[in-house]
Amino acid sequence: MTGCDQSAAMIKVARERLADAADLRLTVADIEKLPFPEGSFDVVVAMGVLEYTDARRALRELARVLRPGGLVVVTMLNPRSPYRLFEWSVYWPAVRLLGRVERWAGTPPERRHAASRTGIRALSRRRLCRLLGDLGLRPVDIAYYDVTPLLPPFDRLVRRWSRRWREHPETTVSRGARRCLGTAYVVAAR
Ligand SMILES: C[S@@+](CC[C@H](N)C(=O)[O-])C[C@H]1O[C@@H](n2cnc3c(N)ncnc32)[C@H](O)[C@@H]1O
Q1: Exposure b/e, 39-49, CB count within 10 A at least 16 = b
Q2: Which of 58, 126, 133, 188 would bridge 31 by S-S if both were Cys, CB 3.0 to 4.6 A apart?
Q3: What CA–CA distance (Å, rounded) separates 54 from 57?
Q4: In this structure, which residue's CA is closest to atom 23 in ligand 1?
Q5: Closest Cα to residue 81, out of 126, 142, 147, 13?
Q6: How remote is the CA of residue 81 from the centroid of ligand 1, in Å?
Q7: pTM value?
Q8: pLDDT digits (tens, 9 = 90+) for 149-185
């Protein structure tokens, strides 16, 4: 198995955690410029990363290193979920506004609210599937996960005491009606 991340710190942690794993290769690499030849892998998984990249370029690289007929599994934040809509258009702007008010009121920097820009670019399912289709990859399964009717910051309070989230994340997965509440989704394509 081969794993990569552009962060050397993440690769170091992975190396420590997987010290006993056999046949494992961990590399610092940019998903938009992978250091592997064409058709190197039967299965390629990109979790929690596409939203931080130029997704078209990253997917092109995943398709390039995948062997013909191989399986690609990618995740993406769901920009249409009530959670993300609220988080991005109400919650974080409100935190930043509060930080500005605190600054104006003379609150010391270490006690001010702040939220740095993440640079996240989340794609809708339709757009992601179109990009996959352009590369000759056909989605075979799509599931939404982290399904929640809660909005930030209440989700954090609930997660703190809810064993469901911590021990059984699979119970927050939906392919049915509740999928619109999924804060992220996973697509498997061939
Ligand atoms: C939310 S974390 C997810 C980490 C891990 N994949 C997981 O599922 O737990 C996002 C990761 O994407 C990595 N990342 C962001 N842009 C990247 C890029 N262009 N190439 C490779 N990794 C990238 C970051 O370094 C970070 O470790």
Answers
A1: eebeebbbeeb
A2: 58
A3: 6
A4: 6
A5: 147
A6: 22
A7: 0.91
A8: 888 888 877 777 666 666 787 888 999 999 999 999 9
